[in-house]
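Troubleshooting: if your tokenizer reports a length mismatch, compare your output against this known-good record of 248 residues.
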Amino acid sequence: MTRWVGGNRQIRLPRTAGYLHLGTEDNNRWGEPRGGVRFFSYPRGRRDVGIALLEAGEDWMCEHGYTRAVCFPQPWKLSHYAFPHAYVSDGLDHIQALLRVHGYEKSGGEVFLDWFDMDPPSPPPVDELDVLVEIQETPGTDSRPDLTIQARHRGRQVGGTCILIGAGHYHSDAADMAFCDLLDVTVDFQGKRLSLHLLLRGLLEARDRGCQHSAISTAYDNDRAFLFYSNHGYRVVDWTYEFTKTLV
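Known-good structure output:
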């Protein structure tokens, strides 16, 4: 890359060929400190660049006493990359492929589903469940509030909860999308269509407040949740995975 300075002088600046951002984590489910990759990027077709970056990162982690490496962990990856629940996106397939060839294995994952131009049907009735469904608004990122839809049973906060957050919390260009941050129903009320009632009720309320689209995610191996979402309006847009490797 050439940059002109003044009339006839020029300075040649190095071109960035790739990027690897490292971090460390002391508290995790393995019970041992981990070093890891917060973000990793190299041009498609430049496998040599990717290998050089990854090996340099592993050398640094080994020199600092870390025996396990993790890539794109949820709590400490770069916040601008994706929603907090995401790992390495399928859109970065060349990154995933290089990690796997280099000895990394899947250690977690999250699947993302979107419902563009959502048109939710009426929620199924839940009168026989003896629950009272309440809606609470909290301030969002713009004029549209975040929503909590909760089912109370005999005056207690038991039954189920659906929380819809404006995706603008994560990315400004996703302000028209309602992200389902929580959909949970207690064991006694599962299998009685309460989850579907809360979700559809929340989506209708969000649409009435100006949200055109919705998104949701679940663990890549949560088959029941995946089946539920994909049968009620949502379609897969991305599979994301965490990768780990034992270094020594």
